[in-house]
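sry for the spam today, last one i promise. struct tokens for design, 124 residues
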């Protein structure tokens, strides 16, 4: 199985970005709980948002209001849209697949397959 993120880059503060995560090698990808994490320089990896097979979403407090997670089961692709970017959003963003179909938490220990990450750099 493989997860490949894309869509990152350099963005001005106040702008928006849409990250994608293409999944391959899964037989029933649409069943799996998927999530986005981010890791800023000098900080621990943080769970941002998750989505289950029913498209039920969960957001970290830091992500509520500006972040939107979604999935396209026909394309086996996960998305994360971030609005009103600020400097604190600068981080490497990773998508991850949970070990099962239920989204129990945004704890990284619940996720077993990870992409290589895509960098988002916000400038003033």
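last one done:
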């Amino acid at each position: 199985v493989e997860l490949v993120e894309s869509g990152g880059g350099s963005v001005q503060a106040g702008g928006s970005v849409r990250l994608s995560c293409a999944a391959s090698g899964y037989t029933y990808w649409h069943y799996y709980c998927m999530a986005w994490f981010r890791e800023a320089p000098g900080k621990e990896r943080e769970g941002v948002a998750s989505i289950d097979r029913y498209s039920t979403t969960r957001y970290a407090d830091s992500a509520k209001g500006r972040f939107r997670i979604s999935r396209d089961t026909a394309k086996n692709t996960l998305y994360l849209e971030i609005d009103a970017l600020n400097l604190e959003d600068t981080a490497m963003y990773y998508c991850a697949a949970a070990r099962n179909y239920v989204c129990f938490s945004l704890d990284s220990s619940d996720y077993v397959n990870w992409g290589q990450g895509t960098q988002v750099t916000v400038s003033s």
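The first strand starts at residue 2 and ends at 6. ok im logging off now
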